Structure formats: C-alpha cells, structure tokens
C-alpha cells in the first residue's frame, strides 16, 4: 500500500475511533497499584484506571469490569472470572475485585469501560492482566536449600564479617515444548536467578528486606522465553544483603541481627503446549559452591570479584559441577513466605563522570558530579590477575584524596581481579555505596573518563512530580532533595546510604514521606514498610525506632514510631488507600495503649528519646546542641505527639467502623489537651514550654493551643525566628515537620520563603552553596564532627517538599475526598517569586499548576484530571478582573464562585484545562 494511502487510512480510523469514544480514553490500568503484576497474593485485588479526555467537566458515572482467565476469551467478550455489570459509581481507584476467587498461579486478564457525565459510554480499555502467586503453603513443592556453615575463606564471626557469594545449580530436562513457565523465587539476603546462562529479570538487590524471622518475600517472573525443550539448567547466586549480618561483635555499633547463612527457595511451574505440567524445584538434588568469582559481599564494606574464578557455563546445561557440594535442606527463614507487592530495586539511571584526576601516582579520583547511590560499572583491559580497587566517598580532602572519616567503619571497597580476556566490564551485585567520588587504584595504565560509569539504583517507582520555580536556590534544593530521596530507597526508606548504618529509622520519615510522595510514586514501598513496622512490634506493643529491626532499638520513643500512624494516614490522603489503616488499626491501637500504660502520668506522656534531633547547634563542630534554650523538652514532644496521634486514631476508628473507639480516643484527647495546656502553656507570656519555635509550632500544628491564644503563640515563632535566629531555621527534624506549613497558614509565608531561599547558615540553601548535591544530616554538615555526619540524609527536609507542592505549587489533596479526588489549589504568591511550574501525577491523572506573575497580572494554567474536582484559590483583591480563557471567569458555566477569603477568590472547578488570569 502506498505510504500516503496508509496515512489517510490511519487518520480515518483514528477519527472514527475518537468519534465513537467521544475523545475519552481509558489508560494506565493498575492492579494492586501495579502495572500487570505477576504473582500477587491478594485474592481480592484492587483495580484502578485513569480516564483522560479533552473535554471539561467530566466525571465517571458508572463502570463495567470484565475479567477472564484467557486473553482470547476477554477479547471475545467472555468473562469467566468476573463481569461486574454496569455499576453506578464514580470510583476509579482501588475497586475491589469481586469475581470468582482466582487460584494459585492463575492468570487474569481484564478490561474496563466507563460511562461519563456527558452521557457517553467509552470504548473498552486495552486489556491488562495480573497473575496470582503461590497462595497456599502446600503450593510450594520446593524447599529451602543452602549451606548452614562457612566455606573456606569465609570469616563469619569476625567484626568485619566476610562471606563469599554462594552459587547453586541444577540441570533438568523438559521433554516437551514449553507453553508457559513461571518462576517463584526467594533468596535471602539477596539472589540473582539464572536460566540457561541468562539472568532473569532486571531487578537488583532482590528481594525486598523484611523482618526475616517473621516474613520473607518471594518474587515471580515469567521465564517462558528462557527455557527450551530438552536440556536446561537453573542457577542462582546468593548474596548476604541484610540477612547475614554486615558486622559481628565488637564493632561498637548496636548489634545487627544475624539471621543466618544465605538460603533460597525456588519453584518453576512449567506448562507444556499439550497442557501437561511440571515443576522444577529446589530440593536436595541441587549443588552449591562458594568458589565462584563473587567473593565477599557486604553492604557496608563492598564486594570482591575475581574474574579468574569465573565458571563459564555454570548456569547452562551440562556444566561439570563435580567439585560442588550437595546442598543442605535448611530451615525456612520465618513463618511467612509471601508475595512481594512493592517493586524491587533496579538500575534507574546512569551517571557519567565529570572529570578524573591522578592525585598521586596510580591514584585516580573520579568526580561523578553528584552524590548518588549505587555503584560504578568498571571497564578495564589488562593482564590476568591484575586487581583494580575502587573506593567511594562523598567528599574529598584538601589534597584531593577521598574523605572517609564520616563513613565510620564502612570500608566501601570493591575489588575486581581481571581475567585478562579482552575488555572486561564489571559491576557488583550485592553491595551499594553512597558517593560522589570514586578512587581507582591498581588500574592497568591510565583509566579514561569512561572507565567508570555511575549506576544509580533505587526502588523501581515512577517519578510522579515535577517542580520548578523562578528561584534558583529553590530549584537547586529541590534537585538535591530529589537525589537524596531516591538514594535512600533500598526496599525500605533508609536514613543514609554510605556509612555503617543505612537503617530504616522511623522518625526520619514521619513527615518526609509526604513530601516524597509528590515526587515519587512511593505508595507500595511505604505500604510495605508499615508491614515491616508491624512485624517488628513486640508482643507487649512496643514499636521500634528502626524497622525492619536490624538494629534492635526499642527505646519506647514517641516521636519516631509516630511514623507508623502518620504514614498510614498519608497513604489514605495521598493515594486514597485505606488498607494500611485497616490492616494496622489493631497494632496501632495496641501501641498507643502500651505507651499510655507505661509512660502516661497525669495525662502527660513523659517519654522521649531524641528531642528535636539535629537542630542547628551553637558552634560549628558540634553534632548536637548543648544549649538548653534551644532544646524542646521531651515530655512536651511526647505529649503533643501523643495528642496528635489520638486525633489520627479517632479518624482511623471511624474509617474502620470501630465506633466505640471514637469516643474513647476523643475523651482521652480532651484530657491530654487539658493537661498539656496546664503544664506547658505560659499563661503570662502566651508561649509553650521554653518558647522554642518547635514547641510553639506543635501547639499550633496539632491544634492544642486554645483558639484565643493561637495568634499570640504564633507571634513568638515569627519573632524568635526573625530576631533570635536572624531569619534562619532553628529546628531539628522534629520541629521541621510542621515549620513551613505553620508559618504559611498563619499568614507568614514570607518567613517560610525566607527560610526556603536563605543561603547562609543554617539553611538548605547553605548546604547547596557549600557544594551539596543532596541534603545533609546536619545543618553544619561541612564543619561538624564526622562521627555522625552523613552527606545524604533526608530528615532535615522536614515539610519543605510538602510546602513546595502544596503551597508554592498549589497541589494539595483534600483529606475529605482523599487520593486527590478533590484537589485544593491555593498558591502562595510570595516574595520575589515570579513563576512556579508544578505537576503531580495522581491516581486520577496529571494535576498541573503553572503560575506566573508579570507586573500587575497573575497567570495560572491549571489541569484537573477527569473524575476529580478542585477548589481553586485565585489570588485576588476582588474577583471582578479574573478571566478564564480570555473571558470573564463568571461567563464560564463550569466554574462556580464560592467566596472571597483572605485575599483569594475561591472557585470550584471540575476537570479540564484552565487558563486563569487576574489583572490587579
Ligand atoms: C542517627 C541518624 C538517624 C536518626 C537517628 C536517631 O542514626 O541521624 O537519621 O533517626 O540517629
């Protein structure tokens, strides 16, 4: 067919289809908030879709879902699993599957169509799918295998533990043609699966880390294309990850739980073309060796790889494994082996070095241009047996060599021994580093710039947010935040990625998670982490400060474990997902009761461990302030947090239908509030505790202060910040949780803007000015003692990113209609800020807010996804000059004027794109 004719034909088809669907399309079908997930174990999974349209004012009025066990059936309109019929509902997020319960391993194909408020019926969506995992323990014919002892060269009990990777393998025959093959695998600490010589999937550092003695994850992969009729081989490499401890006794660190030697379980379910089936399972016919090239691997200390020990063909059929040992059948790690519902980590980005310098003979330092997390890929050519050593650091010393002091005992050293055959490309598997600079020694000759390439690894999740303003300081800080946040996702949110710590500290995320959730689709990671927290709860009810509890820190603190409730609430508000609240309600309630019984005295919660952690200290070398005037009392923090959590529990109780609890929580709230005000409100001065901004912030943010006192209390925050702290931040991570939003909601967005754009100490801008490309652990990270001074922490961000999106960007979920079903859009037009371009991809679609202030006019382009509405605050003295699409806004029938409020004209607008302008 001539090309022109084809184009005309395609155009005709497109026009015809568009006409039929009214330019409304269904897109991004998700099951359990993932795209075509494999091996899920939710038997009533939640289905979601997005509707896009070029029409305004469009709501979904009904939907129909069809689910079939084969794609052909679904396409033919047969739904043997579920045909929901036409359901009148505007729900398009998290619709619970209500068909026939799918069985173990079953594939489910689904499609959806909707009826919209313009009276139209959409076409069916493109089909999507999911598959079930192994639902019952009896579906596992595979057993756990490994070797419960050390191999030659291992030093499992040293302070710096060393344990080589274990290679496991087996040959097998598949007598017939394979139609479909699915691998279910878990290997702890970490595994890589190989079939017939190739690695399965793109995941790295899999599976996700868990409270192993309770729960272990398995992953599911479609391996059909990796198998063949006839001879096959399966193999796996097991690394230590967080299962086999990175440190033994005597490290001076809190002891890291050692769960034991690496082990795995794997089952490949094969379906032949003729319908018969077969299972390839881990059992005692497998063999194991630790004599392969991947030697010791330790997340703190690095990985060693000896290419002279490579075993060509080890995961291909027919390999001679005579020197390998038979595996042992070993005990399972914990009670539960469950499907991992959050994505694994992947290589998400690559970074090229800016320059390389030979700082001493044979010592080459690469500057990667940014602090990031992952590793480097090494390219090298040279004689067999040559060893190249790579070390990593965040900073350099004055002489240009690596500054390692703040990494504490972490050795962060990768070693590669060449096999000498041509150009060799290598990257590690079972370690990761947090670094900007790479030191290369032992390299044969002079390495060129391309000899190392940065590999950025973090949990596979979408970047959902975009944020840019006319202010360079804010833009730079945003980039630093973005890098720091992604770098601290390691299947759990870690505090830091570089030193001998890297733990899932709860407090760091109590507020951070909310800001992060604008930038990254972190829903499933945090849902997973809430489970880690519950798994780490003691039978008595104590919740640790670190989860998974690899460091057993049960200090019975109030402010760190508060993250458990705060993040469950965030999942609800940001993603419209109430499952975490439902799942964890009982455990949260138990924790609240535990803390009350143990630490509440006269309605004051007396316990606190960390204070307002890492507030700016009085002198540059200090880690923590010693000045009592800067510190906020522990019982103040404990009680204000306890009160806030009671209000969350009250709302969780009504969400979950625990109506009796609503009153109980409410009554206790009243008592705590009374005691709090009695103890901490200075009646005369009108401030709280010792009048730190942190103390006053919480009494306002948590609505503890009596209404008639609030203005006065707020004045103290403003005065102290402007006078005592010369317009600078005075809080640590706790106070920062509500700082920017409190300043803004009390009418001093200008002070918030000052803090956000400062470049003098202490400020986020100061970090950037001093060369930071991430966020520091300490405000004085460039001068403080290296004993606790990471260059890549996110906790001090506080609510800055929330403020960027919600206030500057004007994209805020309305908790009354969670998941951005209703969006509050109230831009803070402040200081010399001329422009903000923010967008956020919500579960309903892309929300955009792009404003610009030019002289006497305010221009605002807004996009509201189909099936949502927004309450829009247009900065205006009087509404009369406001236009939309060049015409008076009042002419627009889709826009409803609600009221004037505090210098804003407030409208309700339905879905669509709007061009708003106010000339004042
Ligand atoms: C340090 C880190 C971490 C913090 C704890 C209390 O280990 O700064 O982020 O949460 O202390």
UniProtKB/TrEMBL annotation:
InterPro entries, per the entry: 6-hairpin_glycosidase_sf, 6hp_glycosidase-like_sf, Alpha_rhamnosid, Bac_rhamnosid6H, Bac_rhamnosid_C, Bac_rhamnosid_N, Ig-like_fold, Rhamnosid_concanavalin
GO biological process, one term: carbohydrate metabolic process
Residue ranges occupied by any Alpha-L-rhamnosidase concanavalin-like domain in the UniProt entry: 358-458
Domain annotation Alpha-L-rhamnosidase C-terminal: ranges: 815-886
Signal peptide: 1-21
UniProt keyword list: Hydrolase, Signal
Catalyzed reaction equations: Hydrolysis of terminal non-reducing alpha-L-rhamnose residues in alpha-L-rhamnosides
EC number: 3.2.1.40
Domain Alpha-L-rhamnosidase six-hairpin glycosidase as annotated: residue spans: 463-808
One MF annotation (Gene Ontology) recorded for this entry: alpha-L-rhamnosidase activity
Top-level lineage group: Bacteria
Residue ranges occupied by any Bacterial alpha-L-rhamnosidase N-terminal domain in the UniProt entry: 176-348
Keyword Hydrolase: yes
Name the UniProt record assigns to this protein: alpha-L-rhamnosidase
């Amino acid at each position: 067919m001539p090309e022109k004719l084809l184009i005309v034909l395609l155009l005709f088809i497109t026009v015809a289809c568009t006409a039929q669907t009214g330019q409304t399309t269904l897109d991004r079908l998700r099951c359990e908030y993932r795209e075509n997930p494999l091996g899920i174990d939710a038997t009533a999974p939640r289905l979601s879709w997005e509707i896009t349209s070029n029409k305004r004012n469009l709501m979904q009025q009904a939907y129909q879902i069809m689910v079939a066990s084969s794609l052909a059936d679904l396409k033919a309109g047969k739904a043997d699993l579920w045909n929901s019929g036409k359901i009148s509902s505007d729900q398009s997020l998290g619709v619970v599957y209500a068909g026939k319960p799918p069985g173990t391993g079953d594939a489910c194909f689904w499609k959806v169509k909707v009826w919209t408020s313009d009276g139209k019926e959409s076409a069916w969506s493109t089909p999507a799918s999911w598959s079930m995992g192994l639902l019952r323990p009896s579906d596992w014919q595979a057993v756990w295998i490994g070797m419960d002892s050390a191999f030659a060269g291992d030093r499992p009990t040293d302070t710096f533990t060393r344990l080589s990777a274990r290679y496991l393998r087996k040959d097998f025959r598949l007598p017939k043609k394979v139609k479909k093959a699915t691998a279910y695998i878990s290997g702890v600490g970490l595994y890589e699966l190989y079939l017939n010589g190739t690695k399965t999937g793109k995941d790295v550092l899999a599976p996700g880390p868990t409270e192993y003695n309770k729960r272990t994850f398995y992953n599911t992969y479609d391996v059909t294309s990796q198998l063949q009729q006839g001879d096959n081989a399966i193999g796996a490499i097991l690394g230590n990850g967080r299962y086999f401890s990175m440190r033994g006794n005597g490290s001076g660190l809190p002891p890291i739980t050692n769960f034991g030697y690496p082990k795995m379980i794997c089952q490949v379910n094969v379906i032949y073309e003729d319908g018969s089936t077969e299972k390839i399972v881990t059992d005692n016919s497998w063999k194991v060796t630790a004599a392969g090239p991947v030697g010791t691997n330790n997340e703190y200390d690095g990985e060693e790889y000896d290419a002279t020990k490579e075993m060509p063909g080890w995961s291909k059929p027919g390999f001679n494994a005579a020197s390998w040992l038979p595996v042992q059948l070993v005990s399972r790690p914990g009670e539960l082996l469950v499907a991992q519902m959050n994505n694994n980590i992947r290589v998400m980005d690559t970074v090229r070095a800016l320059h390389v310098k030979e700082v001493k003979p044979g010592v080459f330092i690469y500057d990667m241009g940014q602090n990031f997390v992952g590793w480097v890929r090494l390219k090298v050519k040279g004689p067999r047996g040559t060893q190249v050593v790579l070390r990593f650091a965040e900073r350099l010393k004055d002489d240009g060599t690596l500054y390692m002091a703040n990494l504490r005992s972490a050795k962060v050293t990768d070693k590669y021994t060449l096999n000498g055959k041509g150009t060799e490309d290598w990257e590690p598997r079972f370690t990761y580093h947090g670094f900007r600079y790479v030191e290369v020694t032992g390299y044969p000759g002079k390495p060129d710039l391309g000899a190392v390439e940065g590999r950025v690894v973090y949990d596979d999740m979408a970047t959902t947010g975009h944020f840019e303003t006319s202010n360079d300081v804010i833009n730079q800080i945003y980039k630093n935040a973005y890098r720091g946040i992604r770098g601290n996702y390691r299947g759990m949110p870690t505090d830091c990625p570089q030193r001998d710590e890297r733990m899932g500290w709860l407090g760091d995320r109590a507020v951070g998670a909310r800001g992060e959730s604008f930038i990254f689709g972190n829903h499933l990671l945090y849902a997973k982490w809430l489970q880690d927290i519950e798994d780490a709860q003691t039978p008595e009810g104590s919740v640790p400060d670190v989860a998974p509890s690899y460091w057993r820190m049960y200090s019975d603190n109030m402010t760190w474990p508060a993250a458990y409730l705060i993040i469950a609430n965030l999942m609800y508000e940001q993603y419209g997902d109430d499952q975490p609240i439902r799942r964890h309600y009982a455990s949260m309630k138990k924790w609240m009761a535990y803390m009350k019984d143990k630490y509440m005295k006269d309605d004051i919660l007396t316990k606190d461990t960390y204070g307002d952690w890492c507030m700016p200290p009085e002198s540059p070398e200090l880690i923590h302030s010693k000045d009592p005037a800067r510190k906020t009392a522990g019982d103040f923090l404990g009680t204000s947090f306890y009160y806030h959590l009671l209000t969350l529990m009250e709302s969780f109780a009504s969400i979950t239908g625990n109506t009796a609890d609503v009153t109980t929580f409410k009554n206790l709230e009243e008592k705590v509030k009374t005691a709090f005000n009695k103890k901490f409100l200075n009646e005369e001065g009108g401030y709280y505790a010792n009048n730190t901004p942190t103390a006053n912030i919480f009494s306002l943010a948590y609505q503890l202060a009596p209404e008639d006192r609030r203005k006065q209390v707020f004045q103290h925050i403003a005065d102290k910040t402007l006078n005592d702290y010369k317009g600078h931040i005075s809080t640590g991570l706790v106070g920062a949780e509500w700082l920017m939003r409190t300043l803004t909601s009390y009418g001093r967005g200008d002070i918030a803007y000052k803090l956000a754009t400062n470049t003098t100490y202490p400020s986020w801008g100061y970090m950037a000015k001093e060369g930071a490309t991430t966020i520091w652990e300490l405000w004085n990270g460039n001068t403080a003692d290296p004993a606790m001074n990471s260059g890549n922490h996110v906790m001090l961000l506080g609510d800055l990113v929330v403020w960027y999106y919600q206030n500057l960007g004007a994209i805020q979920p309305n908790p009354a209609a969670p998941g951005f079903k209703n969006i509050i859009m109230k831009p803070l037009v402040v200081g010399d800020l001329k422009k903000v371009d923010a967008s956020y991809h919500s579960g309903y679609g892309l929300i955009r807010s792009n404003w610009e202030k030019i002289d006497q006019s305010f221009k605002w382009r807004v996009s509201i996804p189909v099936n949502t509405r927004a309450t829009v605050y247009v900065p205006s003295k009087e509404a009369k000059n406001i236009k939309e699409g060049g015409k008076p806004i009042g002419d627009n029938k889709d826009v409803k004027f609600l009221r004037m409020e505090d210098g804003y004209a407030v409208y309700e607008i339905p879905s669509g794109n709007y061009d708003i302008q106010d000339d004042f």
